[in-house]
Amino acid sequence: MSTILKVTSSFRGEASASNQLSDAIVNQLKVKDATATVIERDLVKEEVPHLDLNILMSFVTPEADRSEEQQNIVNQSDEFIKEVMAADAIVIGVPMYNFTIPSVLKSWLDQIARAGVTFKYTAEGAVGLVEGKEVYLAIATGGIYSEGPAAAVDFTESYLKAVLGFMGMTNVTAFRAEGMNIPEFAEKAVPNALAKVEEYSF
Which residues bind FMN (predicted)? Predict the structure, then answer.
């Protein structure tokens, strides 16, 4: 039995294209393994705290020296990391806001990217410690960013592949519902993306 972690970050709820695309990916993964367990994290409802000095110091303070508040902060991060480590597949819903990912998704990444836990530094450089994961990005954008002139300002897929890869998650596949704010593309943006999910060999 496999485990699927679904992480969503859109404030649009059921109307969200990235959420619809995420659901479709999860459904296809469950076709592959009907017994799969799905863990869901809605980062908008969770209100994951943004990285600040208190959180950073909690992460770098040795366990024996942490205050109760610091330990509670680390415990929350540990819970997020535990879910990532337990997952065989990770599905991340990614609406583009101002050319990049939502701040709540960045906060989640800041919670799971921890030195000595999900990556480590060696004499040869950084080494990711989260391996063997299949990661799927469900990206939704108002314009066309996968190709053409606007590709230069797409900081969703490239950033996520970089930070996930830094932690060892290098098997990353992106699906896109794009052109949703362009009249000639809007109507078919989600159906085309869903069709690509159905065609993909998971």
Answer: 10, 16-18, 96-99
